[in-house]
Amino acid sequence: MPRIVRIVPAILLALSSHAAIAQDYGDTARVISEVRRGVNDYMTDVRNRTADLERRIAVLGELTDAADTVSPIAMDQSLSRARKKVEEAKHDADRDPALGEPARTVVDVVLHMVTTPPFGMPADQLRAKLFVEISKLEEDVLRQCQAFQSEAQSVESLESTLERIRGSLHATALAGGRASLLTRRRALKSSP
Length: 192
Fold this sequence. Notes:
Blueprint: H1 3-25, H2 28-69, H3 75-94, H4 103-115, H5 123-189
Helix pairs in contact: 1-2, 1-5, 2-3, 2-5, 3-4, 4-5
C-alpha cells in the first residue's frame, strides 16, 4: 500500500478534527503547526523515495545500454563495452544508500552474464537472456511509477481540499473586514 494512501487521509483527518478542536480551544496556530510538520515529514519521505526511483531508472538505462551493446560482430569487444556499462550500473546501485531488490540482484546477474557468458552461446541469445533478466528491474520501475502516479493524483486531491479551505478562510476574513468597515461607517454617520 503506497504511503500516500496512509498519509493523505491522516492529514485530512487532522485538518478536520483539529479544526473542530481549534474552534473549541482557539488553538489554530498549534493545529497548523502540526499539519505543517506532517506535510514536511511527507515531503522528506517523497524526496527520499524519488531519489531511490531515479537511481533505479538510471541503473535500468545503464543495463539496457549494456545489453544493447552485445553484438555478434566483434563479440569480445562488445562484451568488454557491456561489462563497463554494467560496472557503472553496479557502482550506481551500490552508492549509499544502496538500492534494494530487485535492482542489486539484477545487476549482479547481468554482470556475471557479461563477464562469463555461457560457453558457445551466440550473441543474440545472450542479448535476449540479458533483456529477460533486465525486465525484472523494468517491471519494478514500472510498478513504482504507477504508484507514484496514483500518489500524485491523491496529492492533487489534497491540494484541491486545501485550496477550498484557504478560499473559505480568505472569503470569511474579507466578509468580516467588510462588515466591520460598514459598522464603523454607519457609526460615524450617526455621530452628532
